[in-house]
């Protein structure tokens, strides 16, 4: 049995911090694979800044040389009404029946789930396992204890909390702003992705 982490994000664009985070989580949690799962443009709760095609191409370019990283466009191919983390994890648990599946997320999303803002929040927690990365100002243990959804569906193995050494502040938003305003984000994202953004005139 292997251990697989599902790393969902807009990746708009994918950054070196995304790669470093995935690598660090894989190392600390002994994951065999990390699946990079770009969000779909069809999602109603997110506003993308470029087409699915470009974000998908950049993710593939970014992870190409790491055999532990996989890209999957499952959510991009779904109808809008079918896109939810609960349904997505059901799909991956079916696809990798013999492996343990973990959803990788930041502590800010833990709070959102705990407050019932995600579809099927209670079943999502009850039926899945999570690797939760620290975010500045968020007490993850307190967030779990304060939420009936989180605390009552935690069997002791539901949440793997990573609270040290994962705080890096370079975001996709920062990179987009640099491109838009004529800055120089060259070393904040993989070199091939930087070139891709330049060649396709993205984020201007």
UniProtKB/TrEMBL annotation:
Claim: NAD is one of the keywords in the record: yes
Which residues are in the Cytidyltransferase-like domain? 6-177
Task: Give the transmembrane region(s).
Answer: none
Record keywords: ATP-binding, NAD, Nucleotide-binding, Nucleotidyltransferase, Pyridine nucleotide biosynthesis, Transferase
Q: What is its EC number?
A: 2.7.7.18
Q: Which reaction does it catalyse?
A: nicotinate beta-D-ribonucleotide + ATP + H(+) = deamido-NAD(+) + diphosphate
Q: Per its UniProt record, what InterPro entries does this chain match?
A: Cyt_trans-like (IPR004821), NadD/NMNAT (IPR005248), Rossmann-like_a/b/a_fold (IPR014729)
- Pathway named in the protein's UniProt entry: Cofactor biosynthesis; NAD(+) biosynthesis; deamido-NAD(+) from nicotinate D-ribonucleotide: step 1/1
GO BP: NAD+ biosynthetic process
Q: Sorted alphabetically, which Pfam families does this protein's record hold?
A: CTP_transf_like (PF01467)
Alphabetically, the GO molecular function entries are: ATP binding; nicotinate-nucleotide adenylyltransferase activity
Family, similarity comment: Belongs to the NadD family.
Database matches in PANTHER family: NICOTINATE-NUCLEOTIDE ADENYLYLTRANSFERASE-RELATED (PTHR39321), PHOSPHOPANTETHEINE ADENYLYLTRANSFERASE (PTHR39321:SF3)
Explain the purpose of this protein.
Catalyzes the reversible adenylation of nicotinate mononucleotide (NaMN) to nicotinic acid adenine dinucleotide (NaAD).
Task: Tell me what this protein is called.
Answer: Probable nicotinate-nucleotide adenylyltransferase
């Amino acid at each position: 049995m292997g251990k697989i982490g599902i790393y969902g994000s807009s990746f708009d664009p994918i950054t070196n911090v995304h790669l470093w985070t995935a690598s660090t989580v894989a190392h600390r949690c002994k994951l065999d694979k990390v699946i990079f799962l770009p969000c779909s443009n069809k999602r109603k709760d997110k506003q993308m800044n470029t087409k699915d095609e470009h974000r998908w191409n950049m993710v593939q370019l970014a992870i190409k040389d790491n055999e532990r990283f996989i890209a999957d466009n499952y959510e991009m191919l779904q109808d809008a009404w079918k896109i939810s983390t609960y349904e997505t994890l059901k799909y991956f648990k079916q696809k990798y029946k013999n492996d343990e599946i973990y959803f990788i997320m930041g502590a800010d999303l833990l709070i959102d789930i705990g407050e019932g803002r995600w579809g099927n929040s209670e079943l999502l927690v009850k039926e899945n396992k999570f690797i939760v990365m620290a975010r500045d100002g968020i007490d993850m243990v307190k967030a779990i204890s304060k939420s009936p959804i989180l605390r009552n569906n935690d069997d002791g193995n539901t949440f793997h909390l990573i609270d040290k050494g994962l705080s890096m502040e370079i975001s996709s938003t920062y990179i987009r702003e640099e491109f838009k305003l004529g800055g120089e984000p060259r070393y904040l994202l993989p070199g091939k992705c930087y070139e891709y953004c330049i060649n396709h005139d993205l984020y201007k």
